[in-house]
């Protein structure tokens, strides 16, 4: 008797509806699928609740939950969503269902298998995160104008590191670049002034969702 194939499933921390708070889709009503688990432990992480727990959901159940909100934009995030192998079929299924899909990933894992229809928002970890050694630099070669690179910076040292990284890898030629300050660690005005002084080809951003709702889970 042939072995029954298991239905693909993922461990999901939460599915919720909010405004996209970052990147080029900022302000758009978006369904967020937050997957459980992350191999990194960034010093400034604000999603520690997603490190464990959650509930096991099939791809069909996740798509049903997403469809209930009636939104066009879907963001798969974490934790680190690519830490679960079935994240890839989930991304493909969301695209097949007609959604505009983005993926928020730490950049520590290979993004090469992500469906080409997905916009990949890759977070390069600065030294202040204590996880910069985990950056997978091969991912940069895979970035396209559809993708975006994000730098979350905790101070001047992180900023100088990011500035050197952009110059060394000519990142502005690959995709849009985003700079944002770590909340309560770097004054947003300071970061804005540094960007202007150096005329960096980056987009300054503040997390809209935090300005509106703070660090409330599910927002």
Could you explain the architecture of this structure?
The protein has helices spanning 59-67, 87-96, 156-169, 188-198, 208-213; strands at residues 9-19, 29-35, 55-58, 73-77, 100-105, 119-124, 148-153, 177-181, 203-204. It has one domain (9-213): Aldolase class I (TIM Barrel), CATH 3.20.20. The protein contains five helices and nine strands. Helix content is 23%, strand content 24%. It has a nine-stranded mixed beta sheet with strand order 3-1-2-4-5-6-7-8-9. With 219 residues, it is an alpha/beta fold.
Give me a quick take on this structure.
It contains five helices and nine strands; from the N terminus they run βββαβαβββαβαβα.
Q: What are the SSEs and their pairings?
A:
Blueprint: E1 9-19, E2 29-35, E3 55-58, H1 59-67, E4 73-77, H2 87-96, E5 100-105, E6 119-124, E7 148-153, H3 156-169, E8 177-181, H4 188-198, E9 203-204, H5 208-213
Parallel strand pairs: 2-4, 4-5, 5-6, 6-7, 7-8, 8-9
Antiparallel strand pairs: 1-2, 1-3
Question: Tags for this entry?
Answer:
nine-stranded mixed β-sheet, alpha/beta, 24% strand, 5 helices, globular, TIM Barrel
The ordered string of helix (H) and strand (E) elements is: EEEHEHEEEHEHEH
> Average pLDDT value?
94
Q: What percent of residues are in strands?
A: 15-25%
Low-confidence stretches: none
């Amino acid at each position: 008797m042939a072995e029954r194939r298991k239905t693909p499933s993922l461990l999901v921390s939460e599915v919720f509806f909010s405004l996209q708070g970052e990147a080029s889709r900022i302000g758009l009503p978006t369904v967020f699928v937050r997957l459980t688990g992350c191999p990194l432990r960034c010093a400034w992480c604000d999603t520690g609740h997603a490190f464990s727990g959650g509930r096991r959901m099939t791809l069909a159940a996740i798509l049903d939950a997403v469809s209930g909100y009636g939104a066009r934009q879907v963001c798969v995030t974490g934790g680190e969503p690519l830490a679960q192998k079935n994240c890839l079929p989930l991304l493909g299924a969301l695209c097949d269902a007609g959604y505009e899909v983005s993926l928020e990933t730490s950049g520590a894992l290979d993004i090469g298998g992500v469906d080409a229809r997905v916009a990949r928002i890759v977070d390069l970890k600065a030294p202040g995160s204590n996880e910069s050694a985990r950056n997978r630099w091969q991912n940069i070669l895979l970035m396209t104008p559809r993708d975006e690179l994000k730098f979350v910076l905790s101070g001047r040292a992180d900023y100088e590191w990011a500035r050197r990284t952009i110059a060394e890898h000519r990142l502005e030629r690959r995709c849009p670049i985003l700079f944002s300050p770590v909340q309560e660690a770097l004054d947003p005005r300071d970061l804005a002034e540094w960007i202007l002084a150096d005329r960096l080809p980056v987009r300054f951003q503040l997390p809209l969702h935090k300005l509106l709702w703070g660090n409330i889970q599910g927002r």
